[in-house]
Amino acid sequence: MLQAHKHKWLSEAALQTALQQGQADALRYVYQQYYGSIAFFVINNQGSEAEAKDVFQESMIVLLENLQKPDFSLQCSLKTFLYSITRRKWLKKLVRNKPILGKIEDHEAFLNLAEEAEEEDNREQQLALMQQAMQMLGEPCSGLLNDFYVLEKTMQEISQARQYTNADNAKNQKYKCLVRLRKIFFTLYA
User: Fold this and answer.
1) Nearest to 111, CA basis, from 86, 148, 136, 139
2) What pLDDT is attached to residue 169?
3) Does residue 44 contact residue 107 with C-beta atoms inside 8 Å?
4) Could you give phi then psi for residue 111, rounded to 5 degrees?
5) HSE, side-chain direction, 13 A CA sphere, residue 131
6) Residues 6 or more apart from 106 whose CB is under 8 A from it?
7) Do residues 35 and 108 make contact, with C-beta atoms less than 8 angstroms apart?
8) 132-147 pLDDT, tens per residue?
9) Helices (H), the chain
């Protein structure tokens, strides 16, 4: 969480919104906060200050373009995202222009984008299987689980809406439904 007393953004989400709106003070803040670690990475890995500025600007463009996409959701901090993009761009440039001498020195956390894409594919596959399992589960279980996990209803609300004698009975039914759902899901997943 960003500290409110240092600047006006109370959260990264607020900073992202300011960047989406093109607020100059947000751009200045990102540069002041994150450029140093990126420059340190580039300079310590066979680069110059000018090259660090160039690759940082390229990374900022990637960030700003992504923030404009309606379906884009940042799953890490801005700093990690910028560092990861910069790292990938710099390593590509190194491979193209210079032989890489020694080990690449990382000074920040970064996202392994290939691993992240593979993980996202796995999550999507699991989600599709879960949706299929929910359909196979049928009523009243799929409705009860949807009420609890998606609509976030309390057990009391569920027991009244579904005409269980009390919240404990609804809770027991939810447990039995989860057991059945897991069984169906893992049969599909195997």
Assistant:
1) 86
2) 92
3) yes
4) -95, 130
5) 6
6) 41, 87
7) no
8) 888 898 889 989 988 8
9) 12-20, 24-43, 49-68, 78-97, 113-137, 141-145, 155-161, 167-189
Residues in the chain: 190
Amino acid at 26: A
Task: Kindly list the structural domains of the chain, giving each domain's residue range(s) and its CATH number in brackets, ordered by start.
Answer: 12-111 (1.10.1740), 115-189 (1.10.10)
Q: Report long-range pairs for 178-182 (Cβ below 8 Å, ≥24 apart).
A: 178/145, 180/137, 180/141, 181/133, 181/134, 181/137, 181/141, 181/145
The structure tokens listed for 134 are 């929910």
pTM above 0.85, yes or no: no
Residue with tokens 């690449």: 104
Q: Taking the alpha carbons of 115, 93, 64, 43 in that order, is the dihedral positive or negative? A: positive
